[in-house]
Amino acid sequence: MMMSFRTLRRLTLLIGTAALAATAGPPVLASDLIIGRAAEQSSIDPLFSRTGNNESTSEDIFDRLVENDANNQLHPALAISWKAVNPITWEIKLREGVKFHDGGDFSAEDVVFSLERSRNVPNSPASFAGATAGIVEITAPGKLTVQIRTARPLPQLIEQISFVFILSKKAATGLSTADFNAGKGVIGTGPYKFVEWKPGQSITLKKNAGYWGKKADFENVTLKFIPKDAGRVAALLAGDVDLIDQVPPTNAAQLKADPKLQLFSIGSTRLIYLALDSDRDQSPFVTDLAGKALAKNPLKDTRVRRALSLMINRKVIVDRLLEGSGEPAGQMVPQGLGGYDASLVAPAQDLVAAKKLLAEAGYPQGFGLTLHSSSDRFAKDGDLAQVLGQMLSRGGLKINAVVALPYNVYATASTRRDYSAFIFSFGTTTPNAAIGLSNVLATFDKDAGMGTFNRARYSNPQFDVALKRSLAEFDDAKRIAALQEATRLAFADVGIVPLYWPVIHWAAKKGLVYEPRRDEATLAHKARLAQ
User: What's the predicted TM-score (pTM) here?
Assistant: First the structure.
C-alpha cells in the first residue's frame, strides 16, 4: 500500500529518530510524488530532441557522462575522469559497478553506441548531432575506457558530449524513436526506472534502488502534464500535485505568501529571443503594406534587424508582462558565464532611431510581418508574442498576424523554416557561451554540426572565424576572449534579437524541497523531503 506525500510527512514528524534507530532494520516508507509539469516531452527516445521538456524527462531515467549542477558547473557522472592525450585524442575513464535498470553492466560499448546513435536520429526537431560534431572515431579500448579522436582540436569536447544520454546498447540496438515511444528500450542507469507513458496525460516512474549515485527520496513518481498555468496552480492549491514548475510570474508572490507552500526561484541562463529569417531572398510571412509577398526580404538587411530590436522595450516586458521575473538581455548568456561581455547591454527602445534605420534601408513606411510563437513552452510565451506585435506595430511595421501554437507543433514547423519572425529560446547548460553561439548563430553546417538550432539560417563569416578560434583554444583566457569577440560580432549584426533571461519559479507543498536550477530542468530526483 502506498502513502500520499501528506501521510508520509505526518508519519515522519511523529516518528522520532531514536525510534527509527531502534527498529531491527532500516525503515521502509513507501511514498509517492506527483509533479505538475507544464510541458510534455515530444518523445521518450532520449536522443530524439535536445529540448528542455524532453531532457527533463530523460534526466530522471538516463545518465550522461558528466552532469551539470544547479549553476551549470560540470561534475563527473558516468565518466570519472577525462584527459586530452594529444590535441585531437581524448581518453575517458568510466565509473565502475554501474548497472542498467535491467541488471546489465554499463560499459564503454554503451557509450560508443550512444554517441554514434546521437548523430543519426531521424526527424529530430533539435538534433544531438552538434554534440558530437568534429568526432571522427569513437573506440572502446577497455571495458571502462573510451577514446575519442577528433578532426581538429576540440578543447570543449567534454562539454559538448555532456548533452548525450547513455543508453544500453543491448536494449536499444535497432530501435526507432517509435519503438521508444511504445515503451521499448527505455532502460537507463538513472535514479528512476520508466514504467508507463500515457501521452497527453502522464509518465510513471519507479525508484531505482540500485542507483550508483544519491538515492531518490520517493518510491513512485508521476509526471502529470498540465499545460495551462491556471490548471497547474489550481492543482497545487487543491493538493492534487505536490510540486509544479513554470509558476507564472503573476502567481509567484501569491504562492510564496501561502503558509502551506514554498516557492523556489532562480535566474535562468536561457535566452528568450526573436529569430529573423535573414537568409532567404523571399520570406513566407513578409509582405508589403497591402499584404502582397515582397520580392525582396527586408530581414536580410542588418539595418532592418537593428530597427526591429530598437522597437522593443525589454524593461516593460520584464516589469509588466513578467512582473519582474526576468532580466533584459543584450547577448547570449547572462553575467557569470564565460563569454559574457559587459559592454553588450540590453538595447533601449528608440522608435525614432528605428524608423530612421527603416527609411535608410528603403522601407520608410515599414512592411508587413507575421509573428509566430509557442503557446506553452515557457511562461507567458503566447502573451509575449502579442506584446512584441504591439511594439513592432508602434515602431512602424504592419503586423499581419500573431500566431501562437503548441510547442511540439511549433518546434517542428520552425525547424522546417516555415516562419519569418519567430520567438524561440536557447538554454545554456554549460559554463560558457560556446554551445549557444555554436548552435544558434553559427552558419548552418550539418556535417560539421554547427548551427544545429540556427532555424533562421543567419550567417556571418567574421563571427564564424572568431567562434572557431575559440573552439580550438585550450588556453582558458584566450578562449573566453575569443568567445567575447564572437559575441560582439554576432550581436552587433543582430543575428538574433535578444529579449531577456527569465527568472524561473517552482512551487511545492511544505515539507518538500526542490533545488532550483539555472537550466530550468524539472527533475524528480532533485525533489527531497525536508530534513
Answer: 0.79
